[in-house]
């Protein structure tokens, strides 16, 4: 996981350096979306986790 984090950090650094702040934000947002989709496809994340209310989470 450390290697993946390092590669993601390098990609963000390159995007920020060569593309400016807008590219940095775009790469960060797409990386976050990719992370969530990957966790969902692996089965580590349930889609219902995003739509439950606070009251239902405690039960």
Automatic annotation (TrEMBL):
Q: Does the keyword Membrane apply?
A: yes
Q: What is this protein called?
A: Small integral membrane protein
Keyword terms of this UniProt record: Membrane, Transmembrane, Transmembrane helix
The residue ranges crossing the membrane are 12-37
Q: Which domain of life is it from?
A: Bacteria
State the organism of origin. Answer: Streptomyces aurantiogriseus
């Amino acid at each position: 996981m450390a290697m993946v984090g390092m590669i993601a950090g390098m990609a963000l650094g390159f995007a920020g350096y060569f593309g400016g702040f807008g590219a940095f934000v775009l790469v960060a947002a797409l990386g976050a979306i990719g992370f969530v989709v990957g966790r969902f496809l692996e089965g580590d994340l349930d889609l219902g986790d995003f739509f439950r209310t606070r009251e239902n989470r405690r039960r």
